Amino acid sequence: MRYAAIDIGSNAVRLLIAEIVENNHSVSFKKNTLVRVPLRLGDDAFLNQHLSERKSADLIKTMQAFSNLIDVYKVTDYMACATSAMREAKNGPDVVAQIKEKAGIDLEIVHGQKEAKIIYDSHAEQEIDKSKNYLYIDVGGGSTELSLFSAGELIASHSFNLGTIRILDNQDKEETWEEMREFIRKHTRGFKDIAGIGTGGNINKLYRLAEQKDKSPMPFNKLKSLYSYLSSFSLKDRINVLGLNHDRADVIIPACEIYITVMKTAGIKQIYVPSVGMVDGIIQTLIEKNFPQYR
């Protein structure tokens, strides 16, 4: 049995096809195929609150390709979610209707809180000690989701209109930065030794650049050093010398700035990077829907 997850973000569009594995008293999944298309919807959405005809056409073509792959892989259930960029584009609902008509895919534009819940459902928390305190940090192109957990219980969660594309386009607001810092100060007060859990393409890349061994957490000082190192290169050299992809080389700097701000404000000394994201959470959401007996 196979499920598919589609994540339409601000910097890229992803399709994950996963094999569903049913054991005696649990259901898990194994990643089969992951396709990432570097389609940057955020520039249009955050600058003009509108997706251009060209970007809309590219997105529809991508969804048609994904629909064909879903068909060929004989997927039994799927879920397609669009996040920050589509939330802000005034013609988002029109594009959703065109995708349904031309690609046959039902797409949901999810609000920030649901996005945070899906990301949490990626089950990164299974690999960590649930008795401790963690701040979940997901940095995207258009928004940052923060969720504080203590002893496995959700204490507070919020989505902020602060993301890498937004910063690059100078569409971030100082009051949003302050709102995020105030949320962290308010909710982490009284919790000791909070560790970070980072999800998203940028922190995964930073973790690989840090060359951490055996899934060990990345120290805050290592992240700051990486930020200084990456900032010392021009955009061109980050691509040509460091070998970063074009659509990663620019956003990785503002991503560092968000992670550093969050970790500094919360007093976080290290961050775990389980290499999961929105698509993993979507697959997990489908499993919980179709196998309620294993919840």
Describe this structure in words.
The model has no long low-confidence stretch (mean pLDDT 94). With 295 residues, the protein is of the alpha/beta class. Helices cover 45% and strands 23% of the residues. The chain folds into 2 domains: 128 residues, Nucleotidyltransferase, domain 5 (2-Layer Sandwich), CATH 3.30.420.40; 149 residues, 2-Layer Sandwich (Nucleotidyltransferase, domain 5).
Name of the CATH architecture of the largest domain: 2-Layer Sandwich
Number of helices, where a helix is a run of at least 4 consecutive DSSP H or I residues: 13
Domains counted in the coordinates: how many? 2
Mean pLDDT: 94
What oligomerization state is this entry in?
single chain
Low-confidence stretches: none
CATH-defined fold name of the largest domain: Nucleotidyltransferase, domain 5
CATH first level of the largest domain: Alpha Beta
- Kindly provide the radius of gyration, computed on alpha-carbon positions and rounded to a whole number of angstroms: 19 Å
Shape: globular
User: What is the structural class?
Assistant: alpha/beta
Portion in strands: 15-25%
Distance between the termini: 19 Å
| CATH fourth-tier homologous superfamily of the largest domain | Exopolyphosphatase. Domain 2
Number of strands: 11
Order of helices and strands: EEEHHEHHEHEEEHHEHEHHHHEH
Order of neighbouring strands in the sheet with most strands: 8-7-6-9-11-10
Helix content: 40-55%
